[in-house]
Amino acid sequence: MRGGGIIHSGAQEELLALAEVARIPVAVTLLGLGGFPGDHPLFLGMLGMHGTYAANTAVTQCDLLIAIGSRFDDRVTGKLETFAPSARIIHVDIDPSSISKNVTVNVPIVGDAKNILARMVKILKEQGDVWKATRKPWLEEVRQYAAEHPLYYEPSQDVIKPQYVIQQIHRLTGGQAIVATEVGQHQMWTAQFYRFTRPRTILSSGGLGTMGYGLPAAIGAQVAFPDRIVFDIAGEGSFQMNVQELATAVQYRLPIKVAILNNHSLGMVRQWQELFFNRRYSETSLDVQPDFVRLAEAYGAVGLRAERPRDVVPCLEKALSIQGPVVMDFIVDPEENVFPMVPPGHGIDQMILAKPDKKARKVVPLTFPS
After folding, report:
1. What is the pLDDT of residues 252-303, one digit of tens each?
2. Residue 128 pLDDT class (50, 70, 90 cuts)
3. Alpha helices in 300-343 (DSSP H)
4. How far apart are CA 187 and CA 173, in angstroms?
5. Beta strand pairing status for 363-365 and 350-352?
6. Is the bond into 85 cis (omega within 30 degrees of 0)?
């Protein structure tokens, strides 16, 4: 389990070496994305409330959990009593106040993650290649988790699925873009469906939950890296919190690309109201909103819109060809939800999983081989 401390310490190479030498599967927190290659065979994805089935199940079933630079916040652990119940926990963190703050650990190690991981790798290498045979059954079990319940959404020829937009952004940028996010469903879909392979390529407000963060973050990233492709993947609610910063992007000719996943609602809150409050929607509708294409043009940027799946790739390709700021308004499925999802008060081993039939979705208590 790897958190943002890996990024802060610059310990991504040491983490990769540790995982490969000892053949340990890796799950990451939201702010740890990019600290371990998202396309690596040992990568399980993000864990926690909207984590993958493989990551959440592996953490629940493991007998040793090495947590590096993670603070064990409630979005990661779910119900504390059921978090990694059979595991001995090694916790590495530079801040001693974080050790055993939320989860009691067995082996506390206070120090810089890069230095500590380098020493771990050195010791493991001295022991020789003893891990291949011992890890094989566990790795096969973990791979089965991923095969049983991969990340899933129902494709459509009629309505744009937000996950599809993110997948196409990843494909067209070769996974090399710097991606800022706002807060909400699009933030979680980005974490799930954009495979980050390098540190500091996802900019997100994390536990602060700051709507309006993504646009100014993208502007800052573009100033720092003028030759990189920078995206702000946004919801229409969050985007409007700091939309005036389009003026800054236009003034300084910053070629940021804003991809609005527009479901005409405050999507994450609407999802909770659908699943846990019997669709009693309150103050989540954003049916009254500006025309984002004309709004972008009013600021001097380029505005584009996609309303059907066939429009997604041409829209992105056109945006990437423009040497200036672009706002893309993707009209997406208004009832698409983020799955898996751990309901409030549940452990991460109890996930609502995506089903082709929305009516069949339910809380699924997981069962494991004895």
Report:
1. 999 999 999 999 999 999 999 999 999 999 999 999 999 999 999 999 999 9
2. confident
3. 309-321
4. 18
5. antiparallel
6. no
Query: Alpha-carbon distance 187 to 178, whole Å?
Result: 14
Q: Note whether 221 and 203 are within 8 A (CB).
A: yes
* Helices 309-321 + 162-173 axis angle, to 10: 40
Q: Minimal CA–CA distance to 207: which of 9, 36, 37, 49?
A: 49
Q: Give the integer Cα–Cα distance in Å for 136 and 317.
A: 43
Q: What is the mean pLDDT of the chain?
A: 93
Backbone angles phi, psi at 95, to 5 degrees: -100, 110
pLDDT over threshold 50, residue 368: no
319 closest CA partner among 331, 332, 302? 302
Amino acid identity, position 280: R
> What is the set of domains in the chain, with CATH numbers?
4-148 (3.40.50.1220), 162-331 (3.40.50.970)
- Rounded to whole angstroms, the Cα distance separating 289 from 211 reads 16
